[in-house]
Design a protein that fits this description.
Number of helices: 14
Shape: globular
Number of strands: 15
Strand content: 15-25%
Largest sheet: 9 strands, mixed
Helix content: 40-55%
Distance between the termini: 39 Å
Radius of gyration: 22 Å
Oligomer: single chain
Structural class: alpha/beta
Length: 398
């Protein structure tokens, strides 16, 4: 099979690796519009379950990813000088640049052609048996057939910016700071031995009230460093532009599509779907897409049937994740409902922000009920079995 992957992110690269492992005679080219090493994004997160899947499908790249990752198991929340710690599941962080280097090197070692600085226009459909659109939320290939794919974008209310810092966090850290214009907060996590990611978010009224919408990058970073001095411990924040331009603030866009394939063209990763960054699942979902597509092609003889199977399986798998992401984003958009609770209760409900029931139950009542359920084995098992099913059902109806 001749395969063209448009987009050299984790999804396209990992899919090319899996296809070459299945059959070295496949002719696979990955087209990436940016130059090598120019990626932006600081660090990405994933959980142990993803590493297990990567080990099953390609132990060599899985080992390289694991060796280049940092790990944490604690979550720490700082609210106006009061700190609370929660012991949870082990998380992992890895630099996006390092992850792409690992996948690029592995793909090339298997015979995949990776072409950087190769920007395909919307009308430049590669000549291949299978064309994989892995070119992100602004996919040119998807937009070429916009009427068929039926992309829909829901824009979040809050604004956020993605920054780096030289402060290395050994736990997943939240910091909430109250200002005269409202609350502003960040989540920070390490991804290497010398850097961490720091995502800052706030309501638009807070953003404009603090003047962050009008500051150049140096002034904006300086203002944020003062607001989060408690966790930065004297370390600087690092922006993207490193010029007089403003810090890049965005509203998160949740993308869905009515269908994911057309003829021999199929959507992968962020070109097919996005989920709010606050659940830390973007990279995981992209790699799981690649695994599912490669498996569907391996086990299904006809291309149309394989692409339909891939879409069906991934849509079903995404229902509970998309529901969790929607409720997580809404939790932060309604922070005032939770922020004045006692710190331990607020942090507990921060961990429960994916719940489809939480928005409809008074926060302190939900907290007491949840603690009671966790003390009873039978109810705890019922909650863990029932929760994802309720979320999928509500999300599917929505």
């Amino acid at each position: 099979m001749k395969v063209a992957c448009v987009g050299g992110g984790p999804a396209g690269l990992y899919f090319s690796i899996l296809m070459k492992l299945q059959d070295p005679s496949h002719h696979i080219t990955v087209y990436e519009r940016n130059s090598a090493g120019s990626t932006y994004g600081w660090g990405v997160t994933y959980w142990a379950g993803l590493l297990d899947k990567l080990t099953v499908h390609d132990p060599e790249s899985a080992r390289a990813v694991a060796d280049s990752s940092v790990r944490w198991s604690d979550g720490v929340a700082h609210v106006d000088g009061v700190s609370t710690t929660h012991h949870g599941d082990e998380g992992h962080g890895i630099g996006r640049h390092r992850l792409l280097d690992i996948l690029t090197d592995r793909a090339r070692s298997l015979g995949v052609r990776v072409e950087f600085e190769h920007d395909l226009g919307p009308d430049d459909l590669p000549d291949a048996d299978l064309v994989v659109a892995a070119d992100g939320i602004n996919s040119k290939l998807r937009e070429r057939y916009a009427d068929h794919f039926g992309a829909r974008v829901a824009v979040g209310r809050n604004v956020y910016t993605w920054l780096g810092t030289t402060r290395v966090f050994d736990s997943f850290t939240f910091s909430f700071a109250e200002t005269e214009h409202g609350w502003i907060w960040c989540y920070a996590y390490g991804f290497s031995g010398d850097h961490s990611t720091c995502v800052v978010e706030c309501a638009p009224e807070t953003w404009s009230g603090l003047g962050l919408d009008r500051m150049n990058e140096a002034d904006g970073l300086g203002a944020l460093e003062k607001l989060f001095a408690d966790i930065l411990d004297g370390h600087p924040l690092i922006g993207r532009a490193q010029t007089d331009d403003a810090v890049q603030w965005l509203n998160f866009r949740t993308l869905t599509n009515e269908t994911w394939h057309l003829g021999n063209l199929v959507l992968l990763g962020d070109a097919a779907h996005t989920t709010h960054y606050s659940i830390g699942a973007g990279t995981t979902l992209a790699l799981e897409d690649a695994i599912a597509l490669a498996e569907a092609l391996r086990t299904t003889d006809e291309l149309p049937a394989a692409l339909a199977r891939y879409e069906r399986e991934r849509r079903d798998a995404l229902l509970s994740v998309q529901s969790a992401a929607r409720h997580s984003a809404a939790w932060y958009e309604n922070l005032a409902r939770y922020i004045h609770l006692p710190p331990a209760q607020m942090f507990a409900l921060l961990g429960q922000r994916h719940s489809p029931l939480l928005p409809y139950v008074p926060p302190q009542l939900y907290y007491r009920l949840d603690r009671a359920v966790e003390r009873l084995d039978g109810l705890r098992r019922l909650k863990r079995w029932l929760g994802p099913r309720v979320a999928r059902t509500l999300h599917a109806r929505r």
